[in-house]
Amino acid sequence: MTISVVTPVLNDVRVERAIKSILAQQYDPAPELIVVDGGSTDATLDVLAKYRDEIDVLVSEPDDGLYDAMNKGIRRARGDVVAILNADDHYVDPLVLRDVASRLDGADACYGDIVYTNRAGKVVRYWKAGRCANAKWYLGWMPPHPSFFVRRSVYERHGVFDLRYPVAADYELMLRFIRKARIRVRYLDRVVVKMATGGNSSQIVRGNVDVAQAWARNGLRGGLLVPFLKPAAKVWQLAARP
């Protein structure tokens, strides 16, 4: 099983940490590394130049935002499985891809847990995803997108990120794949990604609008309360620890 890892970046030198965590993976064959730079103007370009021999595909051009960059990477991927690792995130250890591959045998996608860290590197939030169940979606549940590994064939059949959702296109995509298309998905019971706090998902109001529209546009019923229940799910993550 071959794996492609797409890393979108724009003016963020932390991409070096993300790249190092990908290159450190003890998985054979080595993952295809795809970096999509949105036209950085800072030292990010120096970092990418440093790893140019290790980067299989490098795109550096203006884009229409984070999800557009992800789509560019997905469309260029050649692996059986596609992962997305943002520039400010990194894999927690070298065995992540090995464990992911073991869970993907006979499945279309898998996901694990993630932790959020502050600037000092301290864990401030633990996202214990748990097993997927249809009822959980009505309570605001979703898999952590940074830990979501999907077979490339799923993107080919069901599409990529919908740019009509500027904040929650990741939520809409997973809702479309898991609830609407009913792909086979498995849970990997371990932390796979360390994620920096902040980012696109911090735009709460716009994100809730995206969530409501995602249910309606995918023809799914019962999602009217989800935008109100979704923030409550994060309260438990603040108190939890891996």
Structure in words:
By secondary structure, this protein is of the alpha/beta class. 36% of the residues lie in helices and 22% in strands. Helix 8 (204-217) packs across helix 9. The model has no long low-confidence stretch (mean pLDDT 92).
Task: Explain the layout of strands and helices.
Blueprint: E1 3-9, H1 15-23, E2 32-37, H2 44-50, E3 57-60, H3 66-76, E4 81-84, E5 89-91, H4 96-104, E6 109-117, E7 123-127, H5 134-137, E8 149-151, H6 152-158, H7 169-180, E9 185-196, H8 204-217, H9 226-239
Helix pairs in contact: 7-8, 8-9
The ordered string of helix (H) and strand (E) elements is: EHEHEHEEHEEHEHHEHH
CATH secondary-structure class: Alpha Beta
Multimeric state: single chain
Task: Indicate the low-confidence ranges by residue numbers.
Answer: none
Helix content: 25-40%
User: How much is the average pLDDT?
Assistant: 92
**Structural class of the helices, strands and pairings?**
alpha/beta
Summary, kept brief:
By secondary structure, the chain is an alpha/beta fold. It has 9 helices and 9 strands. Strands 1, 2, 3, 4, 5, 6, 7, 8 and 9 form a 9-stranded mixed sheet that branches.
Keyword list:
alpha/beta, 9 strands, 9-stranded mixed sheet, 9 helices, 242 residues, Spore Coat Polysaccharide Biosynthesis Protein SpsA, Chain A
